[in-house]
Write a structure and sequence with these properties.
It is a single chain. The chain is an alpha/beta fold and about 325 residues long. It has two domains: about 150 residues, no CATH class; about 160 residues, no CATH class. About 45% of the residues lie in helices and about 10% in strands. It is elongated and about 75 Å long.
Length: about 325
């Protein structure tokens, strides 16, 4: 059993533990960044520093002014839109080889979903939430991969989904370095149960792409597969879909089990369905029986170990439950 993992490359806001570069001169703590630090290669960025705004600096805000969003620095009564956009554009060069990103929430530059936009520069009132200047670029270039902010990743559902995506994309990047149909077939087969839990119909589309009956060039096949992979992993799996997948895996090991063993495993699946135990409690049982009965195909499935076990964290803030 090979439980080695690729080393993902993750874009991260510099203020999340790397440098005291927040507008008030603070260096922030992020539990998920700390959790990942020994397992990934971080690429830290700070668009506001890159824009020459300094540390500490008067904060900036996004303002809807004359039919467009401007970046306004109230304390200095000046627009810094051009400087920040240019800086963010320069930082985009760090994105291409990344498998994911963790950016600072609520930041006018880095926020992915929750930067405040005000209705104007003079006597501003809150208008709406949207992406920050750099966050918008990250979503455009990297949005199909593992991208989220440090606050949403305190939610266990979103965090586990992020980790599944991060390591899946890292594995895909690894085989894309020297693409062959054989490597893609192996990738697709070893992710079968995991992808079935996420999106059965998209998994079957990927199967047809991998079969390559049209004899397309390898580069085209990988490009089509990459597009569908983004769709498979677009949303966290539904618990019921995962339960169905667990029973599918159970079919590979149930034949030689005693009735007491079958009852125990089925009871475990139902406890997972009722949210009384974590997914790992069920997958470890499957793995143990797969070892017992030497089910190599089942042992090859990334469903059993989608990311390093050291990254499992059962803490849950309850924030960000709107995952759909």
């Amino acid at each position: 059993m090979d439980h080695t993992f690729p080393r993902p490359r993750v874009l991260v806001s510099r203020c999340l533990g790397f440098e005291a570069c927040r507008y008030d001169g603070a260096k922030l703590f992020s539990k998920v960044v700390t959790l990942l630090q020994d397992h990934v290669d971080f690429v830290d960025v700070c668009p506001e520093m890159e824009a020459g705004l300094g540390v500490p600096r008067p904060p900036v805000r996004l303002c809807f002014e004359k039919e467009k969003v401007e970046v306004w620095q109230p304390a200095k009564s000046r627009l810094v839109t051009t400087a920040l956009v240019d800086a963010a554009t320069r930082q985009v060069k760090n994105i291409s080889e990344c498998d994911g990103a963790i950016l600072k929430s609520r930041s006018p530059s880095c926020a992915l979903f929750d930067a405040k936009v005000y209705s104007g520069i003079e006597q501003p009132q809150f208008l709406r939430w949207e992406s920050g200047v750099f966050g918008k670029m990250v979503l455009a270039y990297l949005g199909k991969k593992a991208v989220d902010d440090e606050q949403r990743l305190t939610n266990i559902i979103l965090r586990e989904h992020f980790l599944v995506k991060l390591y899946t994309w890292a594995r895909f990047r690894s085989i894309s370095a020297k693409p062959t149909i054989g490597e893609l077939v192996n990738f697709h087969a070893s992710h079968k149960l995991l992808f079935l839990a996420y999106n059965q119909s998209r998994f079957r589309v990927c199967g047809r792409i991998t079969a390559n009956h049209e004899k397309l060039p390898v580069a085209d096949v990988f490009q089509f597969y990459e597009t569908e992979l983004g769709k498979i992993l677009a949303k966290p799996f539904r618990r019921q879909s995962m339960v169905n997948t667990l029973y599918h895996a159970y079919g590979w090991i149930s034949e030689k089990m005693s009735s007491e063993e079958k009852h125990y495993i089925i009871s475990t699946f139902e406890e997972y369905r009722d949210e009384r135990i974590p997914l790992q409690a069920a997958t470890r049982l499957i793995e143990a029986q797969a070892i017992r009965f030497q089910r190599e195909y089942l042992l090859s499935q990334h469903l059993l170990h989608p990311f390093p076990g050291e990254l499992s964290d059962l803490s849950d803030s309850g924030k960000g439950r709107e995952v759909g």
